Amino acid sequence: MAVLVRIPTPLRTLTKGSAEIQAKGETVDSLIGDLERQYPGLKDRLLDESGELRRFINIYVNQEDIRFLQAKKTALKDGDEVSIVPAIAGG
Amino acid sequence: MENRNGLRCRECGRQFPAAPIHVCEFCFGPLEVDYRYDALKGVVTRASIEAGPPSMWRYKELLPIDGDVAVGHHVGFTPLIRAKNLADELGCREIWVKNDSVCHPTWSFKDRVVAVAVTKAREFGFDTLACASTGNLANSVAAHAAEGQLKSYIFIPADLEQGKVIATLVYNPTLVAVHGTYDEVNRLCSEIADKYRWAFVNVNFRPYYSEGSKSYGYEIVEQLGWKTPAHIVVPCAGGSLITKIWKAIKELKLLGLIDEKSSAKMYAAQALGCGPIVTMIKNDTDVLVPVRPSTIAKSLAIGNPADGYYAYKAAKESGGSGEHATDEEIVEGMLLLARTEGIFTETAGGVTVAAAKKLIERGVIPRDESIVICITGNGLKTPDSLQDRLEAHVKIKPSLSAFDRALADLKSQTS
C-alpha cells in the first residue's frame, strides 16, 4: 500500500530534509520497515530496544492516533496519510 | 546565562544549545533547561528572593531568562490562604488554598508560563506567538501578545466555553477554532509549528514555557515560611504543573533553601471523563493509555498528556497518588470552595477540591497533616457549568411589604 508519511523536523536530517515521503506497507509495522530500507537509521529513532514505539512519539493514520486503532498492527490502504508527531505540552 | 548550560534531553541526557527547540533529535524525549545549580547555590538565597518584587520574578534567577522581563511584570505571588472553613467542613487540621484564580492578568496559572515564553520569544527575535489551548493558555497568550505588541495565532477546540472564547478575542489575536478535540488541535499545531517560524509557546518554546510553573511551587514553600506542606493536590491536564511543582521543591533542596529532608506528597486530580494520568497512578503503570475526553472540566480535557509519564513519576516518587472526580463531584467541589472560602474557581478547581475531599475521606491524606489545594483558574470564565444549579433565591417587587413576605416565606422554608 502506498501512503504519504509526514516527517517531523527532528527526523528530517535522516530524510535529506524531506517533510513528506512516499512509503509502502500493509500495516504501520511494515511501513516502519520500508522507511528503514529507504532511510537507514529511521527505525531506531522510532522504536526502542524492545521494538516498541518510543514513549514520546505519536503516530497518526489519517489524523487518528494508532493507539485508538490497532497500534502497530493498524492496516493501511492506498492513499492513507501517516503523521509522525512528537508529544507536545499544553493546556 | 552563566547559570545555565543550554538544553538537555530529559531521557537520554544529550546536550543541545539554548534554542527554540523542544524535542531530542535522537530519542524524542523532551528537552529541559539545564541549570548549573553549583553556580546558583549561595547566590540565590532566601534573603535575595525576599528582596525581590511581589511577583514570580522574585525567582528570576531560577527561570531561563537572559535579559529583562519583557511582559507580565506583575504575574504571580498570588495568595496562599489558610482555608479554615473548608478544613472544618472536611474535618482537617490544616488546609491551604494556593489561589491562582486571581493571577494577574488573565486569572489562571498560565500567566506564569506565558510570561516566560513570551520574554524568551523576544530574546530569540520572534515576532509572532502561537499556542494550542483548552482556554486559559489562549487567554494568557493573547493578552501577553497584546502587551508585547506581537502577533498571535491561537488554536482552540471549537466547542470551548464562550467565556474563554470572549476572554481571548478581546485582545485581538487571530483565533482559529478547530473542529476537533484538544488533542487533535495539538497534533495539528505540531505540524503547523514545523512549517511556520512562530514561537509556539507549548511546542517549540515548551522547555522555557514549562519552567514558569515552578514559580507556583516556590511560592507555596516560601509563603509557608520556607516549609513544604505534607500534601499537595494538583489538577492535571498535560501533567506539566505537578511535574514542575515537584521539581521546584527538589531545586529548593539542592540550593539549600529548605531542609534536605523536606518533601511533600504530590496528588494528581483529574476528571473521571478524562483522567489518563490518575488511571496510570491507580493501575501502577508508567504506560499512558490515551482517552477521548468527556467532561465539563474542559481546561483539563487532554486525553494524550505529553507530561503524563512525568506526572505519574512525580506522584509515585513523592509517595502521593491521585483521584478522579465525576462531573457531579466537580460542580459540588466548586460550590464547596465558594461556600466555605468565598473563592469562585473554574471547573478545574472543582476537580481539585473534589479529588482532595475524596482522598481525605478515603484516609489516603491524613486529617491531621498540612494540605495544599492548588486552585489554578477563575470561575467567572466557566459560569455555564453552574447555570442549572443556581438561581436567585428571592424575586420581589420594590416594596418593603413584598420583602417582608418573602423573608417570612424563606424562614418558614428553612425552619
Describe the protein.
The complex is a heterodimer of chains A (91) and B (415). Chain A has 91 residues and is α+β, with helices and mostly antiparallel strands. Chain A contains two helices and five strands. Chain A has helices at residues 28-38, 42-46; strands at residues 2-6, 20-24, 57-61, 64-65, 81-86. In chain A, strand 3 and strand 4 form a beta hairpin. The relative contact order of chain A is 0.25. The longest helix of chain B is centred in the middle third of the chain and has 15 residues, at 240-254. The model of chain B has no long low-confidence stretch (mean pLDDT 96). In chain B, strand 10 (231-235), helix 10 (240-254) and strand 11 (265-271) form a beta-alpha-beta unit. Chain B is globular. Chain B is built from 15 helices and 13 strands. In chain B, the strands form three sheets. In chain B, strands 4-5-13-10-11-12 form a six-stranded mixed beta sheet, with helices on both faces. The chains are: A alpha+beta (91), B alpha/beta (415). Chains A and B meet through strand 3 and strand 5 of A and helix 7 of B.
SSE run of chain B: EEEHHEHEHEHEHEHEHHEHEHHEHHEH
The low-confidence runs of chain A, each spanning 5 or more residues with pLDDT under 50, are none
Largest sheet of chain B: 6 strands, mixed
User: Hey, roughly how much beta strand do the residues of chain A contain?
Assistant: 25-35%
Largest sheet of chain A: 5 strands, mixed
User: Taking strands numbered 1, 2, ... along the chain, how are they ordered across the largest sheet of chain A?
Assistant: 2-1-5-3-4
Q: Per CATH, which architecture of chain A?
A: Roll
Number of helices of chain A: 2
| CATH architecture descriptor name of one domain in chain B | 3-Layer(aba) Sandwich
- Overall strand count of chain B: 13
Topology-level CATH name of one domain in chain B: Rossmann fold
Q: What is the CATH level 1 assignment of chain A?
A: Alpha Beta
**Percentage of residues assigned to helices of chain B:** 25-40%
Determine the CATH topology of chain A: Ubiquitin-like (UB roll)
The N- to C-terminal Cα distance of chain B equals 67 Å
Rg over alpha carbons of chain B: 22 Å
Q: Residue-averaged pLDDT of chain A, rounded?
A: 93
Oligomer: heterodimer
Mean pLDDT over all positions of chain B: 96
Q: How many separate structural domains of chain A?
A: 1
Instruction: Specify the helix fraction band of chain A.
Output: 10-25%
